[in-house]
Amino acid sequence: IKEENYKKTQLMIQFYHKKNNTDKFALWLFQIAILEQKFDSALDIGEQMLRSDAQQPHHFYYNLGKVYEKMGIFQKATEMYEVAINTDPEFPYPYVALASIQVNYEDYDSGIDNYLIAIKFLPEYGVYYYQLAQAYALSQQYFMAQEAIRQAVYKGFDKGTIFKDPLFNKVWQMFPELEKMVMP
Q: Could you give the number of structural domains in the chain?
């Protein structure tokens, strides 16, 4: 969609939002700001929506979490991912986003748990097995890392990416047959 169409749509939504003062239109403005990568605007709109009494859909909290994450506000991002999970426990993406933050902050056990939950909902996503393998390797659970690597390969994740990942050097030492399996 072209930039001019975004601007026209945004103006139309702003008009209806001001006229009707509904969160439905604010949600559209929020989504458009994200699509335009105007994260300051998205954050302003999102925080206004949080202050309203209306219950928002699960994807709103997830997307607001992503905005906070893009802006480096990880505590708020974590809070929004948790609200998204509480709003819809079967929505897998906040589990992955939360796991990524947890692993980056060396809370490996929580990160691993959240990757496993996401995999339960999206078992065909090889990238999640890859990320799980990274978390296992970082927590020095090399046997579990090699199992997750096998699943990532089986699910079609890029072997070259796995092979080149320095996090897996210890896994290759411990399981040399696995290294041969993932050589591109």
A: 2
